[in-house]
TrEMBL record:
It holds the Pfam family Fer4_13. Residues 168-326 form the Metallo-beta-lactamase domain. It comes from the Eukaryota. It comes from Carya illinoinensis. InterPro entries: Metallo-B-lactamas (IPR001279). This is Metallo-beta-lactamase domain-containing protein.
Protein backbone atom coordinates (compact mmCIF):
# COMPACT_ATOMS: atom_id res chain seq x y z
CA UNK A 1 0.00 0.00 0.00
CA UNK A 2 1.54 3.35 -0.95
CA UNK A 3 2.14 5.60 2.01
CA UNK A 4 1.64 9.35 1.94
CA UNK A 5 4.53 11.49 3.15
CA UNK A 6 4.26 14.35 5.60
CA UNK A 7 7.30 15.65 7.46
CA UNK A 8 7.04 16.03 11.21
CA UNK A 9 6.47 19.62 12.30
CA UNK A 10 9.25 21.11 14.39
CA UNK A 11 7.62 24.49 14.88
CA UNK A 12 10.15 25.92 12.39
CA UNK A 13 9.12 26.19 8.72
CA UNK A 14 11.33 23.78 6.73
CA UNK A 15 12.14 26.43 4.14
CA UNK A 16 13.57 28.79 6.75
CA UNK A 17 17.03 27.20 6.71
CA UNK A 18 17.78 28.83 3.35
CA UNK A 19 16.64 32.31 4.37
CA UNK A 20 19.37 34.24 6.14
CA UNK A 21 18.75 37.26 8.37
CA UNK A 22 21.72 39.53 9.05
CA UNK A 23 19.86 42.44 10.59
CA UNK A 24 20.80 41.95 14.24
CA UNK A 25 23.98 40.01 15.08
CA UNK A 26 26.27 41.64 12.46
CA UNK A 27 25.18 45.11 13.60
CA UNK A 28 26.14 44.36 17.19
CA UNK A 29 29.44 42.94 15.94
CA UNK A 30 30.02 46.07 13.88
CA UNK A 31 29.86 48.39 16.90
CA UNK A 32 32.13 46.16 18.93
CA UNK A 33 34.59 45.66 16.11
CA UNK A 34 34.93 49.35 15.32
CA UNK A 35 35.33 50.71 18.84
CA UNK A 36 39.07 51.32 18.52
CA UNK A 37 39.68 51.45 14.78
CA UNK A 38 38.03 53.37 11.96
CA UNK A 39 40.23 51.71 9.34
CA UNK A 40 38.22 48.49 9.41
CA UNK A 41 34.82 50.15 9.25
CA UNK A 42 34.32 50.50 5.50
CA UNK A 43 35.30 46.98 4.34
CA UNK A 44 33.38 45.42 7.22
CA UNK A 45 30.26 47.45 6.48
CA UNK A 46 30.55 46.56 2.79
CA UNK A 47 30.72 42.89 3.72
CA UNK A 48 27.52 43.22 5.78
CA UNK A 49 25.71 45.02 2.97
CA UNK A 50 26.89 42.45 0.44
CA UNK A 51 25.59 39.57 2.59
CA UNK A 52 22.27 41.36 3.12
CA UNK A 53 21.94 41.97 -0.62
CA UNK A 54 22.60 38.29 -1.36
CA UNK A 55 20.01 37.18 1.19
CA UNK A 56 17.50 39.67 -0.21
CA UNK A 57 18.15 38.48 -3.76
CA UNK A 58 17.65 34.87 -2.67
CA UNK A 59 14.30 35.74 -1.06
CA UNK A 60 13.16 37.63 -4.16
CA UNK A 61 14.17 34.70 -6.35
CA UNK A 62 12.16 32.25 -4.26
CA UNK A 63 9.13 34.52 -4.49
CA UNK A 64 9.16 34.45 -8.28
CA UNK A 65 6.70 32.47 -10.38
CA UNK A 66 7.53 28.80 -10.83
CA UNK A 67 7.87 27.98 -14.54
CA UNK A 68 5.45 25.07 -14.04
CA UNK A 69 2.55 27.53 -13.69
CA UNK A 70 0.37 28.32 -16.66
CA UNK A 71 0.29 31.98 -17.71
CA UNK A 72 -2.25 34.22 -16.03
CA UNK A 73 -3.24 35.99 -12.83
CA UNK A 74 -2.58 33.27 -10.23
CA UNK A 75 0.76 31.54 -9.69
CA UNK A 76 2.72 29.58 -7.07
CA UNK A 77 6.25 30.66 -6.18
CA UNK A 78 9.30 28.62 -5.14
CA UNK A 79 8.57 28.79 -1.37
CA UNK A 80 5.81 26.15 -1.65
CA UNK A 81 6.26 23.36 0.93
CA UNK A 82 3.96 20.88 -0.86
CA UNK A 83 1.40 20.75 1.96
CA UNK A 84 -1.36 20.10 -0.62
CA UNK A 85 -3.94 22.50 0.90
CA UNK A 86 -4.52 24.45 -2.31
CA UNK A 87 -4.91 21.26 -4.32
CA UNK A 88 -7.93 20.06 -2.36
CA UNK A 89 -9.35 23.53 -1.73
CA UNK A 90 -9.26 24.54 -5.40
CA UNK A 91 -8.57 21.38 -7.45
CA UNK A 92 -9.72 23.01 -10.68
CA UNK A 93 -6.88 25.53 -10.40
CA UNK A 94 -3.96 23.87 -8.63
CA UNK A 95 -2.04 20.65 -9.18
CA UNK A 96 1.26 19.06 -8.12
CA UNK A 97 4.28 19.35 -10.41
CA UNK A 98 7.84 18.40 -9.40
CA UNK A 99 7.02 18.08 -5.69
CA UNK A 100 5.41 21.52 -5.39
CA UNK A 101 2.06 23.03 -6.26
CA UNK A 102 1.47 24.95 -9.47
CA UNK A 103 -1.44 26.54 -11.32
CA UNK A 104 -2.83 24.00 -13.78
CA UNK A 105 -5.61 26.22 -15.12
CA UNK A 106 -6.57 29.81 -14.37
CA UNK A 107 -10.06 30.31 -12.87
CA UNK A 108 -12.71 30.71 -15.54
CA UNK A 109 -15.73 31.58 -13.37
CA UNK A 110 -16.54 33.35 -10.11
CA UNK A 111 -16.75 30.12 -8.11
CA UNK A 112 -13.31 28.96 -9.27
CA UNK A 113 -11.83 32.37 -8.57
CA UNK A 114 -13.34 32.40 -5.07
CA UNK A 115 -11.86 28.99 -4.28
CA UNK A 116 -8.46 30.04 -5.64
CA UNK A 117 -8.47 33.14 -3.43
CA UNK A 118 -9.54 31.07 -0.42
CA UNK A 119 -6.57 28.79 -1.10
CA UNK A 120 -4.32 31.84 -1.40
CA UNK A 121 -5.44 33.07 2.03
CA UNK A 122 -5.04 29.60 3.54
CA UNK A 123 -1.56 28.92 2.13
CA UNK A 124 0.76 28.62 5.17
CA UNK A 125 3.75 30.11 3.36
CA UNK A 126 2.04 32.80 1.24
CA UNK A 127 3.35 30.91 -1.78
CA UNK A 128 0.21 31.54 -3.85
CA UNK A 129 0.26 34.95 -5.44
CA UNK A 130 -1.44 37.09 -8.06
CA UNK A 131 0.06 39.43 -10.63
CA UNK A 132 -1.82 42.35 -9.03
CA UNK A 133 -3.36 42.64 -5.54
CA UNK A 134 -6.92 41.23 -5.84
CA UNK A 135 -9.49 43.94 -5.20
CA UNK A 136 -11.95 41.48 -3.64
CA UNK A 137 -9.60 39.90 -1.07
CA UNK A 138 -11.37 41.50 1.92
CA UNK A 139 -14.66 39.99 0.80
CA UNK A 140 -13.02 36.55 0.51
CA UNK A 141 -11.54 36.84 4.02
CA UNK A 142 -15.07 37.22 5.38
CA UNK A 143 -16.04 33.79 3.99
CA UNK A 144 -13.95 31.96 6.65
CA UNK A 145 -14.56 29.62 8.38
CA UNK A 146 -15.87 27.68 5.37
CA UNK A 147 -18.86 25.33 5.78
CA UNK A 148 -17.90 21.74 4.97
CA UNK A 149 -21.39 20.87 3.68
CA UNK A 150 -24.30 22.91 4.99
CA UNK A 151 -26.87 20.27 4.04
CA UNK A 152 -25.18 17.06 5.23
CA UNK A 153 -23.04 18.32 8.13
CA UNK A 154 -24.44 21.66 9.30
CA UNK A 155 -22.36 23.60 11.77
CA UNK A 156 -19.01 22.08 10.77
CA UNK A 157 -16.41 24.39 9.25
CA UNK A 158 -12.93 24.38 7.79
CA UNK A 159 -11.05 27.27 9.42
CA UNK A 160 -8.57 27.94 6.59
CA UNK A 161 -5.54 30.09 7.46
CA UNK A 162 -3.22 27.07 7.64
CA UNK A 163 -0.10 27.53 9.76
CA UNK A 164 3.53 26.94 8.74
CA UNK A 165 4.12 25.74 12.31
CA UNK A 166 2.04 22.64 11.53
CA UNK A 167 3.20 22.21 7.92
CA UNK A 168 -0.10 23.53 6.60
CA UNK A 169 -2.43 21.17 8.47
CA UNK A 170 -6.17 21.85 8.33
CA UNK A 171 -8.17 22.87 11.40
CA UNK A 172 -11.90 22.77 11.98
CA UNK A 173 -14.71 24.33 14.00
CA UNK A 174 -17.76 22.49 15.33
CA UNK A 175 -20.67 24.75 16.24
CA UNK A 176 -22.40 22.77 18.98
CA UNK A 177 -25.33 23.63 21.29
CA UNK A 178 -23.25 22.76 24.38
CA UNK A 179 -20.27 24.83 23.27
CA UNK A 180 -18.22 25.18 20.10
CA UNK A 181 -15.06 23.15 19.56
CA UNK A 182 -11.99 24.33 17.67
CA UNK A 183 -10.10 21.28 16.38
CA UNK A 184 -6.35 21.90 16.12
CA UNK A 185 -4.86 25.31 15.51
CA UNK A 186 -5.14 27.52 12.45
CA UNK A 187 -2.71 30.38 11.92
CA UNK A 188 -3.74 33.14 14.31
CA UNK A 189 -5.32 36.17 12.73
CA UNK A 190 -7.69 38.62 14.33
CA UNK A 191 -9.96 38.56 11.29
CA UNK A 192 -10.57 34.80 11.65
CA UNK A 193 -10.96 35.15 15.42
CA UNK A 194 -13.65 37.78 14.90
CA UNK A 195 -15.47 35.56 12.40
CA UNK A 196 -15.36 32.61 14.83
CA UNK A 197 -16.74 34.85 17.57
CA UNK A 198 -19.70 35.67 15.34
CA UNK A 199 -20.42 31.92 15.24
CA UNK A 200 -20.38 31.75 19.04
CA UNK A 201 -16.66 31.57 19.79
CA UNK A 202 -15.21 28.36 21.21
CA UNK A 203 -15.63 26.58 24.54
CA UNK A 204 -12.87 24.05 23.85
CA UNK A 205 -9.81 23.78 21.66
CA UNK A 206 -9.15 20.09 21.05
CA UNK A 207 -5.65 19.25 19.80
CA UNK A 208 -5.29 15.84 18.17
CA UNK A 209 -1.55 15.57 18.83
CA UNK A 210 1.62 17.60 19.40
CA UNK A 211 2.49 18.27 15.73
CA UNK A 212 -0.36 20.62 14.96
CA UNK A 213 -0.71 22.89 17.99
CA UNK A 214 0.58 25.95 16.04
CA UNK A 215 -0.78 29.15 17.68
CA UNK A 216 -2.78 27.35 20.37
CA UNK A 217 -1.90 29.75 23.16
CA UNK A 218 -2.94 32.86 21.24
CA UNK A 219 -6.24 31.23 20.29
CA UNK A 220 -6.88 30.13 23.86
CA UNK A 221 -6.32 33.63 25.19
CA UNK A 222 -8.31 35.31 22.43
CA UNK A 223 -11.34 33.00 22.54
CA UNK A 224 -11.04 32.17 26.25
CA UNK A 225 -11.35 28.46 25.49
CA UNK A 226 -9.96 25.48 27.41
CA UNK A 227 -7.38 23.44 25.52
CA UNK A 228 -7.48 19.63 25.47
CA UNK A 229 -4.41 17.48 24.74
CA UNK A 230 -3.32 14.01 25.77
CA UNK A 231 -0.73 14.13 28.54
CA UNK A 232 1.66 12.02 26.43
CA UNK A 233 1.83 14.89 23.92
CA UNK A 234 2.54 17.63 26.45
CA UNK A 235 5.90 19.42 26.36
CA UNK A 236 7.19 22.81 27.51
CA UNK A 237 5.11 24.67 24.93
CA UNK A 238 1.87 23.02 26.12
CA UNK A 239 2.58 22.62 29.83
CA UNK A 240 -0.20 25.08 30.71
CA UNK A 241 -2.91 23.30 28.70
CA UNK A 242 -6.10 23.33 30.78
CA UNK A 243 -7.26 19.73 30.22
CA UNK A 244 -4.73 16.88 29.91
CA UNK A 245 -6.20 13.52 28.98
CA UNK A 246 -4.83 10.57 30.95
CA UNK A 247 -4.86 6.88 30.13
CA UNK A 248 -6.40 5.21 27.09
CA UNK A 249 -9.95 6.60 27.19
CA UNK A 250 -12.35 6.88 25.52
CA UNK A 251 -13.59 10.20 26.86
CA UNK A 252 -16.92 11.93 26.29
CA UNK A 253 -16.76 15.67 25.81
CA UNK A 254 -20.50 15.89 25.15
CA UNK A 255 -23.04 13.11 24.68
CA UNK A 256 -22.33 13.01 20.96
CA UNK A 257 -18.63 13.99 21.06
CA UNK A 258 -16.25 11.12 21.78
CA UNK A 259 -12.47 11.35 22.08
CA UNK A 260 -10.68 8.15 21.06
CA UNK A 261 -7.06 7.39 21.91
CA UNK A 262 -5.37 6.21 18.71
CA UNK A 263 -1.62 5.85 19.31
CA UNK A 264 0.50 5.23 16.25
CA UNK A 265 1.48 8.42 14.45
CA UNK A 266 2.40 9.67 17.93
CA UNK A 267 1.94 7.95 21.26
CA UNK A 268 -0.78 10.34 22.42
CA UNK A 269 -2.72 10.88 19.18
CA UNK A 270 -6.46 11.23 19.77
CA UNK A 271 -9.32 11.30 17.25
CA UNK A 272 -12.68 13.03 17.70
CA UNK A 273 -15.89 11.24 16.70
CA UNK A 274 -18.95 13.47 16.26
CA UNK A 275 -21.56 10.72 16.44
CA UNK A 276 -24.72 12.71 15.68
CA UNK A 277 -23.32 13.75 12.29
CA UNK A 278 -21.16 10.64 11.70
CA UNK A 279 -17.94 12.66 11.33
CA UNK A 280 -14.50 11.37 12.31
CA UNK A 281 -11.72 13.93 12.83
CA UNK A 282 -8.47 11.98 12.58
CA UNK A 283 -5.59 14.47 12.79
CA UNK A 284 -2.58 12.80 11.15
CA UNK A 285 -3.63 9.31 12.17
CA UNK A 286 -5.64 8.53 9.04
CA UNK A 287 -6.32 10.49 5.88
CA UNK A 288 -7.55 10.24 2.33
CA UNK A 289 -5.70 10.12 -0.96
CA UNK A 290 -6.93 9.70 -4.52
CA UNK A 291 -6.66 5.94 -4.05
CA UNK A 292 -8.56 5.84 -0.75
CA UNK A 293 -7.85 5.78 2.98
CA UNK A 294 -4.17 5.78 3.95
CA UNK A 295 -1.66 6.58 6.69
CA UNK A 296 2.01 7.55 6.70
CA UNK A 297 4.42 4.77 7.55
CA UNK A 298 7.54 6.83 6.83
CA UNK A 299 6.52 9.60 9.23
CA UNK A 300 5.26 7.41 12.02
CA UNK A 301 6.82 8.51 15.32
CA UNK A 302 5.63 5.79 17.66
CA UNK A 303 4.61 2.41 16.22
CA UNK A 304 3.45 1.34 12.75
CA UNK A 305 1.83 -1.94 13.96
CA UNK A 306 -0.05 -0.11 16.72
CA UNK A 307 -1.20 2.56 14.28
CA UNK A 308 -2.41 -0.08 11.84
CA UNK A 309 -4.39 -1.81 14.60
CA UNK A 310 -5.99 1.48 15.59
CA UNK A 311 -6.85 2.25 11.97
CA UNK A 312 -8.66 -1.10 11.81
CA UNK A 313 -10.52 -0.14 14.99
CA UNK A 314 -11.64 3.18 13.51
CA UNK A 315 -12.93 1.46 10.39
CA UNK A 316 -15.42 -0.41 12.57
CA UNK A 317 -16.99 2.89 13.65
CA UNK A 318 -20.17 4.05 11.95
CA UNK A 319 -18.88 7.23 10.27
CA UNK A 320 -19.69 8.73 6.88
CA UNK A 321 -17.35 11.71 6.88
CA UNK A 322 -13.58 11.72 7.45
CA UNK A 323 -11.95 15.08 8.17
CA UNK A 324 -8.17 14.72 8.55
CA UNK A 325 -5.52 17.42 8.68
CA UNK A 326 -3.74 16.41 5.48
CA UNK A 327 -4.43 14.70 2.20
CA UNK A 328 -8.12 15.64 1.86
CA UNK A 329 -9.64 14.77 -1.49
CA UNK A 330 -13.30 14.30 -0.58
CA UNK A 331 -14.49 14.11 3.00
CA UNK A 332 -17.62 12.04 2.40
CA UNK A 333 -17.31 8.25 2.41
CA UNK A 334 -19.50 5.36 1.43
CA UNK A 335 -18.69 3.58 4.66
Amino acid sequence: MPMAVRPRSTGIPPWSSSMVSLSSVPVRMWFKFNTNSSANRIPFLKAIRSSQAQASASTVSRKQRRPQNVDGEFFVDHTCIDCDACRWMAPQTFTRVDEQSAVLKQPTCEEERLKALQALISCPTSSIRTEKPPSDILHVQKTFPLPIDEQSVPGVYHCGYHSPKSHGAASYLIVHPEGNILIDSPRFTERLASNIEKLGGARYMFMTHEDDIADHERWSKRLKCDRILHSLEVDDSTANVEIKLEGSGPWSLFEDIQLIHTPGHTEGSVCLFYTSLDILFTGDHLFMTESGLDFSEKFNFYSVPIQLNNVRFLLDLDFRWLLPEQGIQNGQLNH
